[in-house]
Every structure is written in C-alpha cells, then in structure tokens.
Design brief:
- The complex is a heterodimer of chains A (about 150) and B (about 550).
- The longest helix of chain A is centred in the middle third of the chain and has 6 residues, at about 65-70.
- With about 150 residues, chain A is mostly beta strands.
- Chain A has 3 helices and 11 strands, in the order E-E-E-E-E-E-H-E-E-E-E-E-H-H.
- In chain A, strand 1 (about 15-20) and strand 2 (about 20-25) form a beta hairpin.
- Chain A starts with 12 loop residues before the first strand and ends with a helix.
- A 6-stranded mixed sheet of chain A has the order 3-7-8-6-5-4. Chain A has a 5-stranded mixed sheet with strand order 9-1-2-11-10.
- Chain B has about 550 residues and is an alpha+beta fold.
- In chain B, strands 1, 2, 3, 4, 5 and 6 form a 6-stranded antiparallel sheet that branches.
- In chain B, helix 1 (about 1-30) packs antiparallel against helix 2 (about 40-95) and helix 4 (about 110-260) runs antiparallel to helix 5.
- The chains are: A mainly beta (about 150), B alpha+beta (about 550).
Chain lengths: ~150, ~550
C-alpha cells in the first residue's frame, strides 16, 4: 500500500528532528515510520554519509546520516533514532532511512519557508520559536532536484 | 817612799833597840846599886848574861829575822811580778782574749798557772760550747720559725678553706632544704597528677567506649548508605525502564502523528491524541530526567555519606587506636607518677636528713675553723717566739764572738792571725787588698773586709761579690772615707783590742750582719791600723 501524505494548502506538517546539533524538518508525508534502535550494519567502501544497511519489514534499508548528508561533515556515531522515508506502493516502495539524533515532534510549519537551492537536500529554512529549522527536500533522496512543494504531489 | 822605808826600818829594829835600851837601863840601875856587897859581881854577871842575851838575840832572832826579811822582799818581788802577770792574764780574760790570757801565766806558780789555764780552757770550752749551742739554737730557731711560719700560713689557708667549705656546706644545707621543699612539692604535685591520671584514665576509657560506639554507628550508617546505594541502583534501573517506555511512547506518538497526518482530516483528532501522548511521554521523560537528577543528587549524597562514613569510621578507628594508646600512655604515666611521687618523698626525706647532717657539718666546721684560727694564732706566737729565740741565739753568738778562743769558729782569733800577715804589708796597699781578697775567699760568709788607718780613713777594702752581687756600693764604701766616728773603730783605738758590734741591717745586702774589728800592730806592738769585717749572719749561721 502506497501511503501518501496529503498536504493541504498552507498546512504543511513536518517531522522535526535534531541531528548534529541542527534541527531539520522532514515532510511528514514522506515519513513512513520512526523507529528506535534499528540495527545498522556498515557497508564497506560506501559513501561517508552511508552509515550502513538495516533490515526493515523484511527488506534491506539504506541508512543515511542526515546531518552528514546535509552539511557534508563526518557522520556522528550516536544515532538513536531512524526516520524511514518511503515512496511508492507497499509492494514496490522505495525506502531510505535517515539517521538522526532525536525525533522531536510532528508540527505544522505555517510560516514562509525561505528558498534554498532547489536541487539541494535543504530546500530552505524557517524560523520557529527563535530557532532556524532546515527543511529537508526528500525528493533529492529519491529522484534528485524535486522541490518541497512538489513532494506533496508525489 | 823614803818615809815608808824609814818607818819599815824603824819597825824592823824597834824590838832590838828597845831590848838594848832595856839592858843599858838595867846596867845603869845595877851601877847605881854598887854599894851593895857583891853587887859588882852581880852586875858583871848581869852584863854577861845581858851580852849573851843580846848575842843570842842577834843570832837567834835578829839574823833569822833579817834573812826572813830578805826572803820576804824576794817573795814580794816575785809576788809583784806574778801579781802583774796575773793581772795581765785577768785583764786579757776581762777583755775576752783567752788566747792572750794564757801567755802571762808562765810566771805564775804551778798550781795557780794550772788553775788559771784550767779555768781558761774550761771557759774557752764553755764559750765554744755556747757558740756551737747558740748556732744550733739559732738554726733550730730558724727551722722552728720557718716551720711555724709555714704551719701558720698553712693554717691560715686551711682556715680560709674551712671558711669556704663551711660556706659551701651551709649553701649545701640551704640547697638541700630547697630540694626537700621542691621534692615535697613535687611529691604533692605527683600525687595530684596521679589523681588526675586516674580521672584522665577514666575519661579516656569513657572516650574509648564513646568512640567505639561512634565507630559502630558509623559502620551502621555505612551499611545503611550501602543499602541506599543498592536501592538507588534499582531506582536507576526503574528510571531507565521508564525512560525507555517514555521514549517508546514518544516514538509511538510520533508514528501516530505521522499516521494521523497521513489520514488527513480524519486523522486530526487522532493527531491531537498522538500529540497529547507525545507530550505525556515528554513529560514522563522530563519527570524521569528530574527524578534522575534528584536521584543523581541523592546518589551523590549517598556516595558522600558513604565516603564520609568510611572516613569517619577510619577516623573513629584511628581515634579509637589513639585513645587506647593514650589510655596505655596514661596508665604508664600514672605508674611513672606514682614512682615519681614515691621517689620525691624519699628525696625529700633524704634531703631533709642531708640538711640536718649539713647543718651539723657546718657547725663542726665552724668549730674546726675556730680551732684552726687559734692554732694559727698560736703558731704566729710560736713564730714570734722562735724569732726572739733566734735573735737571742744571735746575741749569744755575738757575745761569744767577743771572746777570743783558739778555735776556727772564733772570728776574733782568725782575724788576729790575719793581722799578723797584714803588718808585713802595711805599706803595700795592693798586697793588702790581695790579702783581704784571700780573707774573703777563706771566709765566704763575710760581705766585706777593710783596713782603716790610725786616723780612721779607709785605706783598702774588698767586697765579696758572691754575697753582695752586682749591687752598687754605697758612698760610705770608698777609699779615704772616714770611719773615725764608728763605735767599733773608737773601741779598738781606745783599748787596742777587738770590738764586736750588735747586729744591724747591711747596706750592701739588706741582710742582718755585724762588724768585728781587731787592731793591727807592728812588730813593736804599736797599733798601726784596724782590720774590720762585716759578717753576713744568714750565711754565717749556716756555716
């Protein structure tokens, strides 16, 4: 079953996560599940942001370090939470795991999101209670170069 | 003189003349009685008888009487000469010259000569005996004087030492008294310390018990704290479990919110519930964090309590050990104080006895000091008596030296022998000085010998440098210096004999000395000068 998160106009729900000291907003519609303590097995010769492979629902799942992926820094080792993103039908879905330090909450970001590079992982930023939240463009992870607004259409 | 001879002749012939006158008067009377018968015959017979009587008187009385008178005159002459010799001998004896007194006695009768010579020899022997005895007495007196002086000095030093010892003994007695008082005070203090030691031992024993109780309480607290630590660890595990549940709840709420989001409008109410669950989970986590923080503080406090109780237990153990050591030390100290008190009491008693003994010793020493003072005074008087005895012996010696006897110890006799040699050199002063030098060499006890002429001027002298040393001679000792006013010179000049002066202090040596002077005569017996010597008494008495 392909679960699509409907995003109403002007009502965008995001999952706020913290990784590497930064706060990121991941579109809730792209989130399939949030799990803790997912066993991750490193992959030899992989990219630095590729932490390894995990088994989720009987399928292999690539685990990427969000902060390393967004900032290009070396990945951190103390990930406790994995945000599983998915696209497509249940039988043929494409999933990827984002390793974060902590999943905070699901919240609507009603404010205007500043523009970022459209082909970048961080689509823009938004201020929330005095803190800058980086909005993650999950399309880059599946297709590359998709806008945040477009993710709601996928 | 003539009248004496006439009176002697008259006295000599007076009997015969009276007899002749009587006969003539008888004849005249007979002539006048011639008228008587046979008167003439009687007259003639009477005349014959008278003549015979006269003849008999002449031959029987007058001639022997004349011969006796002549004999008497001869005896008178002999008596006169012997009397003169005796007078001369006695005069020599009077002047003390026993040698010269023996010369005239040859003219005396044998018995008288023997008696006089015997008396002279006995007197010489007596003088010599007195001389030697006086020398021995002088020596003995000098020895007694030195000995008594040394004894007196030693007695004075001994008296001073006794005074010092007495002072030291008195000081010792005072010190002993102080020591006795101090010892008594120390004994009392030790007794009080003993009591205080008993109280201290009881206090320490109580403190040991208290510290032991504290240590046991500390151990109990440590056990309770350990139990609390175990309970804290269990609480931590519960908190971890609650945290895990809260996190799972949080994840569950997030997934529910995501699901609610995916449900769109239908899921809004569910999302509200999910949000509430998430908040509940967050509060739970916050509460757990708060509890964990409090539990951390509690655990830290418990750890601190454990450490404190461990330190306290160690400290209590150490205090306990120290208290037990202090208890042992106090017990030893108490024993030492008991011994100290006993010893102090013994010292006090001993020092009191010592003080009494020291007082007795000091009293005895004071008496000894008084006795020594009396001995020293007696010795000083003894020294003075010995000095007087020495002076008396010297006086006797000088007195015996006024006699001339045939002895080498008779200075007068020795000097007179030197005057015989001097008369041969009276005109040669250099020879005289050599002779005087020989005299000093033969008689080393002389300080000086000198020859004075008839006018009293010194013509030669010689000084014994062994006695005088290098001292400068006084001005009176010089050639030409007049000695006419000296008593010895006047005595020798007046009597032509020797003279001995009393002892006086020598100008050359400062020692006591005396002068003996003898007349120097020429071959005719005329005095030509005076030989004088100064005799050093110190050396002379030794010799």
């Amino acid at each position: 079953m392909d679960i699509e998160v409907p995003v109403a106009e002007g009502d965008r729900r995001f999952l706020l996560v913290r990784s590497g000291g930064s706060c990121y907003a991941v579109p809730a519609s792209q989130v399939r599940h949030v799990v803790r303590g997912l066993a991750c097995y490193p992959v030899p010769g992989g990219q630095p942001h590729l932490l390894g492979l995990a088994q989720y629902a009987g399928e292999p799942l690539a685990i990427l370090d969000l902060h390393s992926l967004a900032e290009g820094e070396a990945p951190q080792s103390h990930h406790r939470t994995t945000v599983i993103l998915g696209r497509g039908q249940r039988d043929s879905w494409t999933a990827v795991g984002l390793a974060v330090n902590e999943a905070l909450r699901v919240q609507n970001l009603a404010g205007e999101i500043s523009d970022g590079p459209r082909d970048g992982l961080v689509a823009g930023t938004v201020d929330l209670e005095g803190e800058t939240i980086k909005v993650v463009n999950t399309g880059v992870l599946f297709e590359g170069g998709r806008s945040v607004e477009g993710s709601g259409d996928a | 003189m003539l009248e004496g001879q006439i009176s002697a002749a008259l006295r000599r012939w007076l009997g015969a003349a009276l007899l002749v006158g009587l006969v003539l008067a008888g004849g005249g009377l007979l002539e006048a009685s011639a008228d008587q018968p046979h008167g003439e015959l009687y007259i003639r017979v009477f005349l014959v008888i008278g003549l015979l009587a006269i003849t008999i008187y002449v031959f029987a009385v007058h001639l022997p009487q004349w011969r006796a008178g002549r004999r008497l005159r001869e005896l008178e002459q002999t008596f006169v000469s012997q009397n003169a010799a005796l007078a001369l001998a006695l005069d020599e004896l009077r002047s003390g010259d026993l040698v010269a007194a023996a010369a005239p006695v040859a003219e005396l009768p044998d018995e008288m000569r023997d008696a006089l010579l015997g008396a002279s020899r006995a007197l010489a022997a007596l003088i010599q005996q007195i001389q030697s005895s006086s020398v021995e007495v002088a020596g003995a007196a000098g020895t007694v004087k030195r000995t008594s002086s040394e004894l007196a000095s030693a007695s004075s030093q001994q008296a001073a030492a006794v005074v010092e010892i007495t002072a030291s003994t008195e000081e010792l007695a005072r010190t002993a008294g102080q020591i006795a008082a101090n010892s008594a005070a120390q004994a009392e203090l030790a007794a009080r310390s003993e009591t205080a030691g008993d109280e201290g031992a009881a206090s320490v024993e109580s403190a040991v018990a208290g510290v032991d109780a504290v240590r046991q309480h500390m151990d109990a607290i440590a056990g309770r704290a350990d139990t609390l630590g175990s309970r804290s660890r269990e609480i931590y595990r519960v908190l971890d479990l609650i945290t895990e549940i809260a996190q799972e709840t949080h994840i569950l709420s997030l997934n529910a919110a995501i699901e609610a989001s995916a449900a769109g409008e239908h899921g809004e109410r569910f999302s509200v519930v999910a949000e509430e669950v998430r908040r509940l989970a967050e509060r739970s986590r916050e509460s757990v964090d708060s509890v964990r923080a409090h539990l951390d503080e509690f655990t830290n406090s418990i750890r601190g309590v454990v450490l404190a109780t461990e330190e306290g237990s160690k400290a209590a153990h150490q205090v306990l050990e120290q208290s037990r050591s202090a208890q042992d030390a106090i017990a030893e100290l108490r024993g030492a104080l008991t011994e100290t008190a006993r010893t102090a009491r013994e010292i006090s008693l001993a020092t009191q006895e010592q003080r009494g003994a020291s007082d007795q010793v000091a009293g005895t020493l004071r008496e000894v000091g008084e006795v020594i003072h009396r001995i020293a005074d007696g010795l000083n008087r003894y020294t003075e008596a010995a000095e007087r005895l020495n002076q008396l012996a010297l006086s006797i010696q000088l007195l015996t030296q006024s006699f001339r006897i045939d002895s080498q110890h008779s200075l007068r006799h020795q000097l007179l022998k030197w005057t015989i040699a001097l008369r041969d050199y009276s005109g040669n002063l250099e020879a005289v000085e050599g002779l005087l030098d020989d005299l000093l060499e033969e008689c080393p006890f002389l300080e000086m010998a000198y020859l004075v002429d008839l006018s009293g001027a010194m013509v030669a002298f010689c000084v014994n440098r062994e006695r005088v040393g290098d001292r400068r001679l006084p001005g009176s000792v010089a050639i030409g210096q007049s000695y006419a006013d000296r008593p010895w010179y006047q005595a020798v000049t007046r009597d032509g004999r020797s003279a001995v002066t009393p002892a006086y202090e020598s100008l050359l040596t400062g020692d006591p000395c005396f002068t003996i002077a003898v007349a120097v005569q020429d071959y005719r017996g005329s005095m030509i000068g005076t030989l004088g010597v100064d005799v050093n008494l110190r050396n002379w008495t030794k010799i």
